[in-house]
Write a structure and sequence with these properties.
With 310 residues, the protein is of the alpha+beta class. The protein folds into 3 domains: 3-87, Uridine Diphospho-n-acetylenolpyruvylglucosamine Reductase, domain 2, CATH 3.30.43; 93-218, 2-Layer Sandwich (Uridine Diphospho-n-acetylenolpyruvylglucosamine Reductase, domain 3), CATH 3.30.465; 221-292, Alpha-Beta Complex (Uridine Diphospho-n-acetylenolpyruvylglucosamine Reductase, domain 1). The protein has 7 helices and 19 strands. The chain has helices at 3-12, 49-58, 111-120, 136-142, 202-219, 239-245, 274-292, and strands at 22-27, 39-44, 65-68, 74-76, 81-87, 95-97, 102-106, 123-124, 145-146, 149-150, 155-162, 167-171, 188-196, 198-199, 225-226, 252-253, 256-258, 266-268, 301-303. Strands 6-7-13-11-12 form a 5-stranded antiparallel β-sheet. A 4-stranded mixed β-sheet has the order 1-2-5-3, covered by helices on one side. It is globular, with a radius of gyration of 20 Å. The mean pLDDT is 95.
Length: 310
């Protein structure tokens, strides 16, 4: 048995009995939009909130835990991830409306599904989520936004589980939202959110969502293996303009490329590794700093270790 396989077995042996499955040496590249990166020692797919709470409460504190969504804004390095990666599934995908014009959504619900749920309920204010290619949980963690609005503009409260399995609610003000950031501790795990909407005309809501869909299709490489916007917009600047000015449009590293359609997107044309994609991003950062004096900050979440021999 390899060292990596032995490590995975030692982690499995210390995990509690749960209803959701454990998977040894799971290939995380199959779970990310980049389709790159190394494996997790163990992948856990909790059945629901109670199952996740049991897992968190009974898992030894020295075992590293990492939670992921659909992997739309995630880059996994080739060395993989130690400990347990938690991926929320069907038990966290609900989207419902209530009489107070609020939408309650599980952390694994796609932002697109939240926008559609609001449309079905005749509620406006959440159309911008149609332009965010991720889940509610990831959006809470990074204050996701698009087309002029962010999570901070519509969130009422977020429900989390602590590492001890305790359910804790955060109000909007307690989230500490800033541009593409929340101050919520990495030791809490988002499981649900409530968003405030308002009554609206279904035709107008649908028209706005269609506008967003068409704009994304025309300006972003949405059909490619990409991780969405790569870098945050620095104050007073557009990241894509800085990247273009630095001559990085179309820059390649193996199968990793800076998109020629929207140069704040990196693309995997097939066989690029996680390390190659990150190296290309770092080269872009260096060229932008040299050409403009502005330092770009990663928006894509990068996790795992650099080594490729696991």
């Amino acid at each position: 048995m390899s060292v990596a396989a032995t490590r995975a077995e030692s982690v499995i042996a210390r995990l509690p009995k749960v209803r959701g499955p454990y998977q040894r040496r799971a290939l995380l590249k199959d779970l990310t939009w980049f389709r790159a990166g190394g494996p997790a020692d163990v992948l856990f797919l909790p059945a629901d909130i109670d199952d996740l709470a049991t897992f968190l409460k009974d898992t030894p504190g020295d075992i590293p835990l990492t939670i992921v969504g659909v992997g739309s804004n995630l880059l996994v390095r080739d060395g993989g991830i130690a400990g347990v990666v938690i991926r929320l599934g069907r038990g966290f995908m609900h989207v419902t409306a209530d009489p107070t014009h609020r939408i309650r959504a599980g952390a694994a619900a796609l932002d697109v599904a939240v926008a559609k749920g609001a449309l079905d309920a005749g509620l406006s204010g959440l159309e911008f989520m149609r332009g965010i290619p991720g889940t509610v949980g990831g959006g809470l963690r990074m204050n996701a936004g698009a087309y002029g609005r962010e999570f901070k503009d519509v969130l009422v409260e977020a429900m989390t589980l602590t590492r001890s399995g305790e359910l804790v609610k955060f109000s909007n003000s307690q989230m500490g939202f800033t541009y593409r950031h929340s101050s919520a501790s990495e030791n809490v795990f988002f499981v649900e959110a409530v968003f405030q909407a308002a009554p609206g005309e279904r035709s107008a809501i649908e028209a706005r969502m269609n506008e967003i869909t068409e704009a994304r299709s025309a300006t972003q490489p949405i059909k490619s293996r990409t991780g969405g916007s790569t870098f945050k917009n620095p104050p007073g600047h557009k990241a894509w303009q800085l990247i273009d000015k630095a001559g990085c449009r179309g820059l390649r590293y193996g199968d990793a490329e800076v998109s020629t359609l929207h140069c704040n997107f990196l693309i995997n044309h097939g066989e690029a590794t996680g390390n190659q994609i990150e190296a290309l991003g770092e080269e872009v950062r260096a060229k932008v700093k040299a050409a403009t004096g502005v330092e770009l900050e990663w928006e894509i979440r990068r996790i795992g270790t650099q080594g490729g021999n696991t």
